[in-house]
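QA checklist item 7 of 12: single-chain prediction sanity check.
[x] sequence parsed
[x] length recorded as 213
[x] structure emitted
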Amino acid sequence: MNKIWILLLTCIGSAQGNAQSIDSTWFCITGITFDTIGPNTMHVSIAMDGTGTDFVNYPYITEFIEDATGDTIATGAMYYFGQMGGTTMAYPMATLLDTLPVGFTTGTAWFTYDTVICTLPYPCGSLSIFPKAIVPKITVHPNPSDGKFTLTLPNFRPGTKVVVWSTLGELVYFEELTTPVAEVDVERVAAGLYILEISANEKSQFIKILIND
């Protein structure tokens, strides 16, 4: 439950910007450091191209992988509300290491923002063993709504689960999907902001939904 609380708390709020034309080429990992004060923390710095009018919502790194071994050496969760174009931000990640592995040469970060997932190589510009793929955008409409939403998943996989959380961390809806297009009906809950979680293969994406009076 603690992990859920952390994720929910960083989802609350609003941000302005449009990530429709922003892809993985806008981002570059500029450095990796280890926290000398807080134990078991690795910071991955990511620079974003663009200007102050460009913005992505809820960016974070889910995993950082050493290419040579395929080992996950750090994991992350939502921490920032967003990142603005022309800035560099250090993303904290949990790790059991206090330095990069001996012989480390290149790595890959699984980076997510809005409803997009992509891979970023380290050092920036190096060739990753992973494809620089972008997951097609999950859509939820209408949003806001009266409590009925249509969820469309371009890369649907059997066993995908949908959960709706209140901003207090309460579970208000759960369903295991059987089709790539599904109806989410939460008309019985109070109006307000909720967090829609879509999870499959131990990975989750989060979308804010708003229920009107």
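[x] summary fact logged: The two ends are 29 Å apart (CA to CA).
[ ] second reviewer sign-off
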